[in-house]
Write a structure and sequence with these properties.
This protein has 98 residues and is mostly helical. Helix content is 63%, strand content 4%. Strand 1 and strand 2 form a beta hairpin.
Length: 98
């Protein structure tokens, strides 16, 4: 799977040099930084795409942004709870034995 923002339809395709380097303009820097930070925090591509849409449409209700963020937090909480369950089971099995 590609990780390039244009192929993920997060940004318009960048102009390429003869040596195939992508050239981004000043107006691309802020979205690129946002994408990098959001992906680093585990946001799914679809959620990032939705959040980026807010930059171009300031009339959208901020409750939608909250909903996306809270959904992401709920997903993280669920993963943490699952990991804690696995950890507890491993602790019990190491005390009790096979």
């Amino acid at each position: 799977m590609s990780t390039e923002p244009a192929q993920l339809k997060l940004l318009s395709p960048a102009v390429r040099t003869e040596s195939n380097w992508r050239l981004y303009g000043e107006r691309d820097l802020r979205p690129l930084s946002f994408i990098r930070h959001a992906r680093g925090r585990g946001f799914e591509v679809d959620a990032i795409r939705e959040l980026l849409a807010f930059a171009g449409d300031l009339q959208r209700p901020w409750a939608e942004v909250d909903a996306i963020a809270f959904e992401h937090l709920a997903d993280i909480d669920s993963k943490l709870a699952g990991a804690a369950t696995v950890q507890r089971k491993q602790a019990v099995s190491s005390v009790v034995g096979p």
